[in-house]
Amino acid sequence: MNKIKIVIAGPRGKMGIEAVKMVQNNEQFQLEAVIDRKHNGKTLAEADSRFSHLPIPIFTNPDQCFATVKPDVLIDLTTPSACYQHAISALNYGVRPIIGTTGMSKAQLTAIEELANEKQIGCIIAPNFAIGAILMMKFSQMAAKFFQDIEIIEMHHDQKLDAPSGTAVKTAELISTERSLKTQGHPNEHENIPGARGADFEGMKIHSVRLPGLIAHQQVMFGAEGETLTIRHDSYNRNSFMTGVKLAIQAIINLDTYVYGLENIME
Ligand code: NAP
User: Fold this and answer.
1) Co-location of 162 and 193 in the same domain
2) Do 58 and 171 sit in the same domain of this protein?
3) I need a labelling partner for 110 at 20 to 30 A (CA). Which of 142, 187, 189, 226 fits?
4) What is the CATH number of the domain that holds 151?
5) How many separate domains does the chain show?
């Protein structure tokens, strides 16, 4: 069987480093090149001592990368603005994007979805690659049938750029498919410090905690008369996301549409 040819955007980042390792250690995958905003024309080995064993070419321009390397799959773990450019370029060159980067706008996601479906190229947007996190979202969606009052508390490291997290937004979206609409809290509640009650998503609340020491954690709290239910997931290291990245690579080869959320390829 031919190996799946892969390009990783953001290889020096915290997630990118893990993705490079995972791809390198998998016999089915072949890392062909990386996209980085620095070091165009060098190799990973020349640019970064952590990759001294990897003479993989670095491209800054995604068009040039895809035209030269012709990979099967792009894995993007960068920033929202860079990721959008990479995904559009990938689709224009017939390359299937797997997007782990979070924080793109609704308009950007819609543009990617329309282009992927128009060109009939598989595209996976995964706000969370951790299998346990997907289950946490699914269980929360199930519980939302029975509880209207819900607070989502997501906790991440303090270098995270977007808030709330993509996982929290995705959880709220899944919950809203089952939850009867309700504005939570006392009708006359007042924030003495703005933001104290968190962000509002259809009347339920999302709170974002940012602290050094954390990686990626979320708990969803459900409350009803005399009881609460808490569903919690913790990623203790970034390797926890790589099972999902691997799953996405294996699935995307047989996809010809846009998929938002890893849960849609897990079943
Ligand atoms: P990070 O450590 O800041 O890494 C981001 C990398 O992207 C950096 O190496 C950065 O380079 C690079 N970059 C920035 N602009 C670029 C461009 N134009 N072209 C190529 N590379 C560019 O962040 P991280 O923790 O790895 O997270 C990356 C993304 O993944 C974030 O959006 C995060 O929320 C998301 N994430 C997703 C999951 C998931 O399961 N889906 C899990 C964790 C994180 P410089 O260092 O030069 O700026």
Assistant:
1) yes
2) no
3) 142
4) 3.30.360.10
5) 2
Task: Compute the distance between CA of residue 103 and CA of residue 34 in angstroms, rounded to an integer.
Answer: 21
Atom of ligand 1 nearest to the CA of 126: 41
8 A C-beta contact, residue 171 and residue 218: yes
**Catalytic residue (one of 39, 156, 217, 233):** 156
193 and 173 in one domain?
Answer: yes
Q: Are 130 and 167 in contact (CB under 8 A)?
A: no
Which residues are CB-contacts of 164 (< 8 A; sequence separation ≥ 6)?
A: 152, 154, 199, 206, 208
Residues 244, 138 within the same domain? no
CATH assignment at residue 42 = 3.40.50.720
Q: Residue 139: which domain range?
A: 131-236
Judged against a pLDDT cut of 90, whether residue 239 lies above it is answered with: yes
Please identify, by atom number, the ligand 1 atom nearest to the C-alpha of residue 100.
Answer: 41
Tokens for 123, please give them.
């595209």
The model carries a pTM of 0.90
Task: Look at residue 182 and give its three-state secondary structure.
Answer: coil
Kindly report the average pLDDT of the chain as a whole number: 96
Give the integer Cα–Cα distance in Å for 41 and 98: 24
Percent of the chain, pLDDT > 90? 98
Distance 89 CA to ligand 1 centre (A): 18
Task: Give strand pairing partners of 83.
Answer: none
pLDDT value, residue 94: 98
Q: Is the CB of 79 under 6 A from ligand 1?
A: yes
Distance (angstroms) between ligand 1 centre and the Cα of 169 equals: 19
Residue range 132-145, pLDDT digits in tens: 999 999 999 999 99
> How much is the average pLDDT of 15-43?
97
Residue with tokens 């128009």: 118
Q: How confident is the model at residue 267 (pLDDT cuts 50, 70, 90)?
A: confident
